[in-house]
Design goal:
Distance between the termini: 9 Å
Strand order of the largest sheet: 1-12-5-4-3
Number of strands: 12
Helix content: 10-25%
Order of helices and strands: HHHEEEEEEEEEEEEH
Number of helices: 4
Mean pLDDT: 78
Radius of gyration: 16 Å
Low-confidence stretches: 1-22
Shape: globular
Strand content: 25-35%
Length: 150
């Protein structure tokens, strides 16, 4: 499953091109062998204002989606597994400034030890926020689901 984030990082910038082009869709070989242009790279941001965040959802122990509107969401791909981070579980993000969640701030999963008993997992550093489309998010969810079933 380690190859999933790397492959997705490579594929995410190309998905809009492949999905919305009038030309024949690109396959993985075409995508990986092409020379990307500067505008093909993932659109990332340094911070998200706390007041704009509608939800933060863990897809697994390395991927989190911050939703700011119905059509705008940002993916956080952690460098390594984050213990306590589980799909659809409660997340806690900790900010240094309070008004925004930024790169190098942290996110924590929660552990449940029975009814009413929750403890925070270790801090995991947020490397960046990558804007993704709904289609890219659907593809990521499906890819993670397939990787888990192997």
């Amino acid at each position: 499953m380690r190859g999933v984030p790397i492959l997705l990082t490579l594929l995410l910038p190309w998905l809009p091109v492949a999905g919305f082009s009038d030309e024949d869709p690109l396959d993985v070989e075409d995508i990986l062998s092409a020379d990307p242009e500067a505008e093909d790279y993932v659109d990332s941001v340094r911070c998200l204002p706390v007041r704009r965040i509608r939800s933060a959802t863990a897809l697994d122990d390395r991927h989190i989606v911050f939703r700011v509107s119905r059509s705008e969401q940002y993916l956080v791909q952690l460098a390594r597994r984050c213990p306590g981070l589980r799909r659809n579980d409660t997340l806690v993000y900790e900010t240094t400034g309070g008004m925004s969640v930024c790169r190098n701030d942290s996110v924590r999963g929660t552990y449940g030890f029975g009814p009413g008993s929750r403890q925070l997992g270790p801090r995991c550093r947020i490397p960046e926020f990558q804007r993704i489309t709904t289609e890219q998010l659907d593809l990521l969810r499906e890819t993670l689901k397939q990787a888990k079933s192997r």
